[in-house]
Amino acid sequence: MHVRVGTYNLHGMRAGLAALAPVVVALRADVLCVQEVPKFVRWRARRGALAASAGLAVATHGRVGGVAVLTGPGMRVLHAEHHALRPFRRLERRALALAVVEPIGDEGRLVAGSFHLDLDEAARAYHVEEIIALMEDAAARYDASIVLGGDLNEQDHQPAWRHLAARLADCHAEAPAGGGPTFRSPRPRRRIDAVFAAREIAVVSCGVPLNGTDQAGASDHFPVVAELRVGH
Q: What sequence ranges are listed for the domain Endonuclease/exonuclease/phosphatase (predicted)?
């Protein structure tokens, strides 16, 4: 089966639903890992409104960390978890949202995780270890393949990214397509957002989609979408 998995830092939805919705719709994602979703006033309603505007559903429902997984109508959600990661003094609390999903009427099961690493290097290094352990545990319990989408707040030559890429495939590096840099719009120069996938998953393509939508007007990050082939 082919599955489109995306990651998108929404910048707190500051640009508003009218700006974000066309970008999210154009991603055509079956699974979308989002960061900087609302986590205070009316956070459930605002997340739900964004998902509904693109024909998606919110699969995970934790508030901490501002991360969530959204799923398309072709995916069945089997299980969801939300984990607050180890706190670091004077740093923002980080979290992992994960959902176990499978396509309706097809084979193959994924555990999809959304994460947002800190600006602090020590916190990133610790949290990436936590995230891998949590994802591997869920994958083993549900016999699922791992996909991770997130904002790493560092680039591919730095330690946390390299650690992730040693355990999982960096999808853009495997099969680059579209754009590469994701931050900061409107003229991004750094690739700090990525989709990673288990080695048994075939990466067909991955990158910033060039679809004509106003990505620069919707967020300070550009989205990334990977097309994956799961199973036979």
A: 6-221
